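PROTOCOL LOG
Step 1. Enter all chains and additional molecules of the complex.
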Amino acid sequence: MFDKIIINMIVEGFWDSIYMTLVSTVFAYLIGLPLGIILVVTDKDGVKPMVWLNRGLGVIINILRSVPFLILLITIIPFTRWVTGTSIGTTATIVPLVVAAAPFIARVVESSLKEVDKGVIEAAQSMGTSTFQLIYKVLLPESLPSLVVGAALAVTTILSYSALAGFTGGGGLGDIAIRYGYNRYQTDIMLVTVALLVVIVQVLQEAGMKLAKVCDKRRR
Amino acid sequence: MSTIIRLEHLKKDYAVGKDAITALNDINLEIEAGEVFGIIGASGAGKSTLVRCLNFLEKPTEGHVYFEDRDLAKLNTKELNVARQSISMIFQQFNLLMQRSVLRNVMFPMEIARVPKEERKKRAMELLELVGLSDKAKVYPAQLSGGQKQRVAIARALANNPKVLLCDEATSALDPTTTREVLELLKNINQKLGITIVIITHEMMVIESICNRVAIIADSRIAEIGPVKEIFARPSTEAGRKLVYPDGDRNIHFGSRRCIRIVFDGRSSFEPVIANMILDCKVPVNIIYANTKNINGTATGEMVLQLSDDEKDYEKVFAYLKARNLTVEEVRNYV
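Step 2. Run joint prediction.
Step 3. Record the structure below.
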């Protein structure tokens, strides 16, 4: 059906997509996880209320989250170029992906951490835990199953963003789908890339749910 | 005995919208080292807020909390965290870390106190032994029953050798049998380890079974305070009477005739006092209410008798019971 060149291109696109998604997820978590923690801790009902910081951060996150990804992708091209030296290709795509995903992840982490029982937090405080100990010994471990489910959500969302990056020559399966399927009407190639994206999402989602189940100790 | 916790003019307000609601008002209290001190009150009386002021989980609006003569308000965060290792706490909902095994739950406070790892594990196993759960060390809290969870919480609370153990409705989520077992364990801890215990509850039964002294909280204030036996024998306030006769208003209707309430101490409850009294005085009585309980190892009971309207009969009975060193009081429509 396809010649060798096309097959090689799809295989390469597959790995490019995986690369962009995973690297972006890691960087987005490096930024989003601490932000999520700050949102929870500085909340007015949090363990260290700091209303101005909480509000300010909330507004910035909301602004970044309300910009459509395609607009963000184009708007920050100068920044992307400054960071990676180029605005096209997989590595350049990681920059807008991280910028778009970090605030999203901050909110996902925030909602996971807020699930931790207030009584458990109070108990830990009654034992004399510092705020830092409370974060890494109580909040994070206690919400681990929920954080993992959130990570599965984040990684699949980032994958779908990365496909959009094809519009600006971002590389990966989305890029192929747009160039061959959309621009050249080669529906078969588009279908194959979309099918591969579906498979990746399925695998990541399933793996995430399995992992969450394994680390959930709340079952009887 | 020395005072371990002292409260002076404690006041706690909560902001609800624009208004301030006073949860606690002018609370003065001294808790002695080594005693089991009960704080009882109806729900919403402010007792949970009070116990949270003792370890500064709630900061009082006014007044002072002294722990071993140190004003908790004057400690910085670090000093307060160290002090909290000496004032541990257990809760109605147990509040165990669900993602940690039983053993690691008990080790948790020692991690906070930076106890070396080997020592943590050794001590945690000893504590699980103490509460009778050494076989559950590797199990997760979700697999335990309520009583077992509270035992783990108690073991965890003892990890850093605290001086005070605060119990916030610790048995309220447990069935009566488990409640008795947990109270027994607390009593043992108090007697063997000499840890001062402060118990918050709405159940008189909890106070009766293990407390030495009790404070009754009503309407944000301390209504009454004293040894459990005294308060139980002679509640002097409305709030006290309500707690001592919890089902009074449901079951007892005295009518116009007069009633007396007799309180037995450990000795006399083994004598057939009422039978002898009826034979001696030749007076018919109607037993309205009777109850005996075990208070700190001695059998204690109370009984409400209805007498005829004859003044002479009444005086005879009263004198007879007084002569036997029983606490007798006349009760008129106390419900």
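Step 4. Note key features.
Chain B touches chain A at residues 55, 57, 77-78, 80-85, 87-89, 91, 93, 95-101, 108-109, 111-113, 140, 142-143, 153, 160, 166 (CB under 8 Å).
The longest strand of chain B covers residues 3-16.
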